[in-house]
Design a protein that fits this description.
Elements: H1 3-10, H2 19-28, E1 33-40, E2 43-50, E3 53-55, H3 58-71, E4 80-89, E5 94-118, E6 125-133, E7 139-145, H4 153-175, E8 184-195, E9 200-202, E10 205-228, H5 231-247
Helix pairs in contact: 3-5
């Protein structure tokens, strides 16, 4: 390269990267710009979207890092879940949205579920298990356990009938759940080992009672999230963008 060309190149102005210019250009093109987030239970992340499609570059990385600071969830460790989206407003130079935060809790429900089994049927233990989440029909499992002996078709038929009855009982319980602290039903994973010797005889039947059900709940809160691109934050991001470029 000649000296004249080197001199010309040296005089070329260095175009500094600007986070506001980058956002303004996209906004003027009619794009919707947003930062979303979701996580909890030791994992979580934030991400940048342009018209609902994820974008990952040096500009978005800087903005996402500042949103992590604004959310202040750290490593997302804890028994909670959170999600939300903040949309960019070019006039106010802010990303604003709502954070939906839910903290996991537990509750014990008092119930009076009766389970009747024919006295003539041989068994040692009746095992009952329920699994359910807030938007699903409960999954019920009922099994007879015989320590010495065998099971016959009647055992299976009675288990099936009990599962259908208990499915209705638990569905009604969960659908009508009301807490004392405005928590919402989240799920249930509980089981009972009912021993024959603990049953109450009622004519030709043995009667077991389920008196408590342990459920998981979630306490929901909403808070407004505002990531303002004030002078200090803009300067910080621009320095990061241009220092990275200079280093390369």
């Amino acid at each position: 390269m000649s000296l004249s060309k080197k001199a010309a190149k040296a005089k070329e102005p260095v175009i500094k990267k600007s986070i506001l210019n980058w956002l303004s250009q996209l906004d003027e093109n009619g794009n919707e710009l947003s930062i979303g987030w979701e996580g909890g239970g030791d994992s979580g992340w934030a991400y940048f979207e342009i018209d609902g499609h994820r974008e990952d570059n040096e500009y978005t990385e800087a903005l996402v890092d500042h949103m992590h600071d604004e959310l202040n969830y750290g490593s997302w460790a804890g028994e909670f879940s959170a999600n939300g989206k903040a949309i960019y407003d070019a006039k106010t130079r802010t990303f604003e949205g709502t954070d939906y935060y839910g903290e996991d809790r537990n509750d014990v429900l008092d119930v009076d579920f009766k389970i009747k089994v024919p006295k003539k049927l041989w068994f040692d233990i009746l095992h009952v298990e329920v699994e359910s989440s807030y938007d699903e029909t409960p999954n019920i499992s009922v099994q007879f356990i015989v320590k010495n002996g065998f099971l016959v078709q009647e055992h299976s038929d009675i288990c099936h009938n009990l599962e259908e009855v208990l499915k209705d009982d638990f569905s009604s319980l969960f659908d009508n759940y009301e807490s004392t602290d405005n928590s919402e039903f989240r799920g249930c994973n509980d089981s009972w080992i009912l021993e024959r010797k603990d049953a109450i005889e009622d004519e030709d039947d043995l009667v077991f009672t389920i008196s408590e059900v342990h459920v998981q709940t979630i306490d929901n809160e909403e808070r407004t999230i505002v990531l303002e691109l004030d002078e200090d934050r803009v300067e910080n991001i621009d320095n990061r963008l241009n220092n990275t470029e200079d280093a390369n």
